[in-house]
Amino acid sequence: MKKIFSSIDIGSDSIKIVVCEYFQNKLNVLASTKRKSDGIRNGIIVDSVKAKESIKNAIKEIDLSLGVRVDKAIINVPMYDAEYMINEGSTTITNEERVVTGTDMVNALQGSIYNKIPKSRELVTIQPIKYNVDNEKKDLYNPRRIRADKLYVTSMSTTLPKKNIYVVISILQELGIEVIDILFGIIGDYYEFKTKEMENSVCGVINIGSDTVETAVFKGGIIFNSNTIKTGSASIDTEISYIYNVNPKQAEKIKETFAIAHKEFASKTDVYEINNKLGIKTKINQYEISDVVNSKLREMLEIAKKSLNDLTKKEISYIIISGGIVNMPGFDILAKEIIGDKAAINMIKTIGVRDESYSQALGMIKYFIDKLSIRGKEYTMFDDEKYLDLVENKKNNINNGNTSVFGRLFGYLFDNKED
Fold first, then answer.
1. Quick check: helix, strand or coil at residue 77?
2. Is residue 46 a contact partner of residue 40, using CB atoms and an 8 Å limit?
């Protein structure tokens, strides 16, 4: 089966869409796009018309890039008012072989939350903490193919108020997108950057977004608690705009192209010339602007660090820090100063999305694939007809002189595989 997956990261600053093929245990990016968003504040859709138009434009761009229409996706939802519940459930093994299957694992999970979710809330994720069979206490993570009469599970489920989810899903449905799975974007961050050592430890994640800083604690690969703080990288733009009397777009450009996260690495002689809102030419010194940025980032990291400590009493061994702001020169040094050696700032290595702002979109696909693998399920978001259209379109592009990296990648992927 040709396995194609797509995800949509709906953020306050931008909409990111990634389409990947999963081949030989590796994700290959077929297309990606990042478009400015509108109508979204603090991760919440506040103007459905503007938000819909933003998402529509991003989908249109990804469709044009692929040459086929994306109509299924994994999406993220904001973590506000998230609740976490540990539950227990079980199911009887009824197949003739008395062997645990992926279906039995799902049935046990469903049993663990049966009649336990209030009508005003919606299930976002449910993850198995451990399985056991019959009367044995082996604390299994994947009991598939084990002989048993009964399967027991301890699960962690997360829920949100329905209103937080339905407005997003309704917009996507109007745009012809079937939502295959929903999860918190910060789970995507974890899955993109986690290591084997992190999977066996208590791990914190900090995502610095445009309007919010999200924090979460994972244990054994499972999210146990989270928090959303109303501050983010856009506050740096506001500060720059106020100090230098420039408009927000100018401030954002200065931040992204000139400022340094750690002022000790900034030049005291380099200047950035710009006309301010009054039309007056202004010279901005790199060291001075970096001092402003440094101060705001320190404040955010300190708040995030405290938030993680409030989320768990257990010792955190690693802290993943993500978000587009980590691309800024000197950020890794600053993070180490505030967070210490626990700070883990890893760059995305996947060709086609080497921009840290894609971490949630890419990681959400990895999470979904992992979930399918554990349950022994085969799935793809592109049927055979759509897949063949995709291959034909890309081959035509190559034959018409497309010699880009993506063109060569498609040639490799689609000409060297067996069914």
1. strand
2. yes
| Buried-exposed string 344-361: b where 16+ CB fall within 10 A, e elsewhere | bbbebebebbeebbbbbb
Task: Indicate the DSSP class of residue 140.
Answer: B
Q: How far is CA 248 from CA 115, 327, 329, in A?
A: 49, 20, 21
User: Cα–Cα distance between 16 and 10 in angstroms, integer?
Assistant: 7
Q: How far apart are CA 228 and CA 243, in angstroms?
A: 27
DSSP helix/strand/coil, 240? helix
Is the pTM for the entire model greater than 0.85?
yes
Tell me: do 362 and 342 sit in the same domain: no
Cα 265 → chain centroid = 30
Question: Which stretch of DSSP H or E encloses residue 34?
Answer: strand 26-36
Cα 159 from Cα 126, distance rounded (Å): 9
Contacts of 199 (CB under 8 A, 6+ apart): 220, 221
Around 182, how many Cα atoms within 13 Å sit in the side-chain half-sphere? 22
Q: Domain check: are 225 and 324 in the same one?
A: yes
The answer on 329 and 369 residing in a single domain is no
The SS3 of residue 279 is: coil
Quick one: 328 and 302 in the same domain? yes
d(Cα 373, Cα 271) in Å, to the nearest integer? 53
Q: Is residue 189 part of a domain?
A: no
Which amino acid does the sequence have at 376?
A: G
Torsion, CA 2, CA 347, CA 232, CA 196, rounded to 10: 80
370: Cβ contacts below 8 Å, ≥ 6 apart: 191
Does residue 246 sit in the same domain as residue 148? no
Domain of residue 148, residue span: 83-163
pLDDT, tens digit, 9 for 90 and up, residues 383-414: 888 888 888 876 666 555 554 444 444 444 44
Helix, strand, coil shares, percent, the chain, to 5: 40, 30, 30
- Give pLDDT tens digits for 2-28: 899 999 999 999 999 999 999 888 999
With vertex at residue 56, the alpha carbon angle to CA 357 and CA 2, rounded to the nearest 5 degrees, is: 70
Neighbour tally for 236: CB within 10 Å? 27
Return d(Cα 194, Cα 192) in angstroms, integer. Answer: 6
Q: How far apart are CA 209 and CA 332, in angstroms?
A: 16
Lowest mean per-residue pLDDT among 175-179, 308-312, 405-409? 405-409
Largest CA distance in the chain: 82
Name the amino acid, one letter, at 81: D
DSSP state, residue 358: G
